[in-house]
Design goal:
Distance between the termini: 24 Å
Strand content: over 45%
Shape: globular
Number of helices: 3
Number of domains: 1
Length: about 300
């Protein structure tokens, strides 16, 4: 399998988030979340996944043009037109989406514009680019539900190098993403601003690995990866308390990690890489499971185990 396709599979699974909230004052085993919280769970996961998918595309675009990367490599992006402006200051790459993604499960329209200062190459240590989403709309083919993303984030190649350098002995590549103005428009027309602070560390170990962590501190809460307000008007934060790890040797699945969510005065800890009984397991033939342990402000608790 080509390296870039393998990396696509890894990154597309790089973050799964699960939210829950208040229940009755008792311990409940495997109770389904409320419809509101189920919707928010899906919103959070879709936004994270689609931003990750765009980051795959922009890495392809950056590494495809020697003026931006410092090294030439051919590649393509499904149902998109890529244009390069190497004369403007800053230089720009525009990705204009016009159809189905590579898996055929979503359609994408709108554009993403990458801006890079003259004299900088993406392979440089500390190279930073600006990534602007302009009416980037993703429609799920199965039910026609959509999200639309606008706003800008910065992406830093913290220690330099290109992803393909992993094949020739580089131990890892680190990218830091930060944004304070990602605007999300949901199916019901509500619009919310979310903030993002994530680090992705890529390595060749175990058939290709990505470790994802949060880098922001919000009050007394550290390792925050995303925070803002959900479509129902409730403030939330998501912290990655143990790095989310995805490996090629396990079919590019999320094999371990833990996230803590804070929402409506309650916390929920989600642990990944488990069997159906909540025990750690190594690359099962079937599904992995996550275990969600929720604690409400009144002392109520809930434990929920489900496949992913």
């Amino acid at each position: 399998m080509p390296t870039n396709i393998r990396l696509t599979s890894v990154i597309a699974l790089s973050l799964i988030t699960i939210f829950t909230a208040c229940k009755k004052d008792s311990t409940q085993q495997n109770q389904e979340p409320t419809p509101e919280l189920t919707t928010h769970t899906e919103d959070q996961n879709r936004v994270s996944t689609e931003m990750d998918a765009v980051n795959i595309d922009l890495n392809y675009a950056l590494e495809n043009n020697s003026s931006f990367s410092g090294r030439l490599q051919g590649d393509s992006i499904c149902s998109a037109v890529v244009t390069f402006d190497t004369i403007a200051s800053p230089r720009k790459i525009t990705i204009t989406y016009n159809g189905a993604d590579c898996g055929g499960l979503h359609t994408r329209t709108g554009s993403v514009i990458i801006s890079m200062a003259s004299g900088v190459h993406w392979r440089d240590s500390g190279a930073t680019i600006s990534v602007a989403y302009q009416n980037f709309k993703v429609v799920r083919v199965s039910d026609k539900k959509s999200i639309t993303i606008n706003g800008t984030h910065t992406l830093k190649n913290t220690y330099g190098g290109l992803l393909r350098d992993l094949l020739i002995g580089r131990p890892n590549i680190t990218h830091d993403l930060n944004s304070d103005n990602m605007s999300i428009t949901f199916d019901d027309g509500t619009q919310r601003n979310w903030k993002v602070a994530r680090r992705r560390v890529y390595s060749i170990a175990n058939g290709g690995t990505i470790a994802v962590s949060g880098t922001h501190t919000e009050g007394s809460e550290s390792n925050v990866a995303e925070w803002g307000t959900d479509r129902f008007g409730h403030a939330f934060t998501t912290s990655i308390t143990q790095p989310l790890v995805i490996t090629g040797n396990c079919q590019f699945r999320l094999i371990s990690g833990q996230i803590t969510h804070n929402r409506m005065g309650a916390t929920a800890s989600v642990t990944f890489g488990l069997d159906k009984n909540g025990n750690a397991i190594s690359c099962p033939a079937g599904n992995y499971y996550y275990k969600l342990t929720w604690a409400g402000p009144s002392g109520a608790t809930l434990i929920y185990i489900a496949p992913y």
